[in-house]
Amino acid sequence: MNATDSFLAAAPATAAEAPLVALHDVHLSFGANPVLKGIDFEVQRGQAVSIIGPSGSGKSTILRCITGLLRPQHGEIRVGETRVDALRTEAELIALRKRVGFVFQQYNLFPHLTVLENLVIAPTRVAGRDRATAERDARALLDKVRLSHKEAAYPGELSGGQQQRVAIARALAMRPELMLFDEVTSALDPETVGEVLTVIRDLVRDGLTCVLVTHEMRFAEEISDQVYFTEAGVIVEHGPAARIFGAPESERTRAFLHRALGEGPRASSAPAALPAPFPETLAFERLRFAL
Ligand SMILES: Nc1ncnc2c1ncn2[C@@H]1O[C@H](COP(=O)(O)OP(=O)(O)OP(=O)(O)O)[C@@H](O)[C@H]1O
Ligand SMILES: [Mg+2]
Predict the structure, then answer these.
(1) Which residues have C-beta within 8 Å of that of residue 57, sequence separation ≥ 6?
(2) 4-21, pLDDT tens digit by residue?
(3) Most buried residue, 197, 211, 213, 218, by most Cβ within 10 Å?
(4) Looking at ligand 1, which atom is closest to the CA of residue 183?
(5) pLDDT of residue 16
(6) Sign of the torsion formed by the C-alpha atoms of 60, 66, 69 and 75
(7) In whole angstroms, what is the distance from residue 44 CA to residue 47 CA?
(8) Which residues line ligand 1 (CB under 6 A)?
(9) What is the residue extent of each domain of the chain?
(10) Predicted confidence (pLDDT) at residue 285 exceeds the cutoff of 60
(11) Residue 269 pLDDT > 90, yes or no?
C-alpha cells in the first residue's frame, strides 16, 4: 500500500452508496448579483469530477461553498454526513477543512519553513499527529509528487511548478477525504504545467476523490469520471467526460468547447489575472491551520 492509498483508507466506509459531496438547488448572490442559480452537483467517493465553463460562470464559487467559505442563501450542501450550509462556528468549519483539501492557483506555502516543515506543521499542530508519523507521511508524499530531493529547500528556492506540487502534497498531508483543485496550473509557466498535471493524474488513478476546476480541457476529458459545464450560474449539462466532450447535448456546451479547444487549451477560461490579495484564500488557510 503506498502513501496515498493509506490516506484514502481514512475515509469512513459508512454510507458507501451516498455521494461524498452533494449540492441541491444552491442559490447564492453577492448583493443584487445572482451568481449561483440552482446548482445540483454530486461527487461519488473515488470519482474525479471536473467543472468547466466560461470565466465568471461560478466555478470557484461552487468550490468555496463546498468548503464553507461562502454560504448560499438557499439550498443544501453536504460533505459526507455534514450539512455544510448549516455550519456556524469556526470550530465546525475547521473540522470540515481538515477533511477537505483545497489547492488554489496561488500556492500560499509558508515561506519561512522548509518544504518538509510545510508538510509537517498542520498534521502535528492541527491534527495532533506525532512528529515521526507526520515526517514519514511527508516524505512519502514528497516522493509521490517527485520532490524528495527538495525536502530541505525553502519555497523561494523552487520553481512555480515545484511549489504547486508541494502545495498539493501539503494538502494531502492532512489525509483529506476530498481534494478541490481550482485552476492550479493557470499561474504556471507552460513548461511546468505538465509536471503538476502528471501529479494530479497519478492521484486520480490512485482513487483520490476530487473536484477539479480547470481550463485544461484535454486534461479534464482524460481524467474525469464526470464533467459539469457551467454558464452564468447554472449547470447547463453534466455527464461522463466522453459524452460531454464527444457529444454535448447543449448548443452552449458545444460552442464553449469549440472555442476552448479551438483556441488552444490555455485560452478557454483562464482568469485574466490573479486577484490580489486573495482574501478568501488567506481566510481558508488561517482557518484550516488555525495559525
Ligand atoms: N467575493 C465576491 N464578491 C462579489 N462578487 C463576486 C465575489 N466572488 C465572485 N464574484 C462574482 O461571481 C461571479 C462568479 O465568480 P467565480 O469566481 O465563481 O467565477 P469562475 O467561474 O470561477 O471564473 P474564472 O474562470 O474567471 O475563475 C463573477 O461574476 C464574480 O465577479
Ligand atoms: Mg475561478
Answers:
(1) 230, 231, 232, 233, 269
(2) 444 444 445 454 579 999
(3) 211
(4) 27
(5) 55
(6) positive
(7) 6
(8) 30, 35, 53, 55-61, 269, 271
(9) 21-261
(10) no
(11) no
Mutating to test ligand 1, I would choose from 23, 39, 57, 104 the residue with most ligand atoms within 8 A of its C-beta, which is 57
Measured from the Cα of 280, ligand 1's closest atom is: 1
User: Which is it for strands 21-30 and 33-43: parallel, antiparallel or unpaired?
Assistant: antiparallel
Using pLDDT thresholds of 50, 70 and 90, give the confidence band for residue 270. Answer: very low
Strand partners, 211: 49, 180
> To 5 degrees, how large is the angle CA 250–CA 212–CA 106?
130
Q: CATH for 21-261, among 3.40.50.300, 3.40.50.11780, 2.60.40.1120, 3.40.1350.10?
A: 3.40.50.300
Whole-number Å distance, alpha carbon 113 to ligand 1 midpoint, is 32
Percent of the chain residues topping a pLDDT of 70: 85
Q: What is the pLDDT of residues 190-220, one digit of tens each?
A: 889 999 999 999 999 999 999 999 999 999 9
User: Which grid coordinates are listed for 99?
Assistant: 477533511
Strands (E), the chain: 21-30, 33-43, 48-52, 74-79, 82-83, 100-103, 178-182, 210-213, 226-231, 234-240
Cα three-residue angle 35-274-38, rounded to 5 degrees: 15
- Omega before residue 271 within 30° of 0, cis: no
pTM over 0.85: yes
Residue among 61, 102, 229 whose CB has most ligand 1 atoms within 8 A, to mutate: 61
All cell numbers assigned to 263:
483556441
- The whole-angstrom separation of Cα 112 and Cα 221 is 38
Please check the confidence at residue 47 and state whether its pLDDT lies above 50: yes
- Which is nearest to 106 in space by CA: 188, 175, 49? 188
Distance from the Cα of residue 64 to its chain's centroid: 10
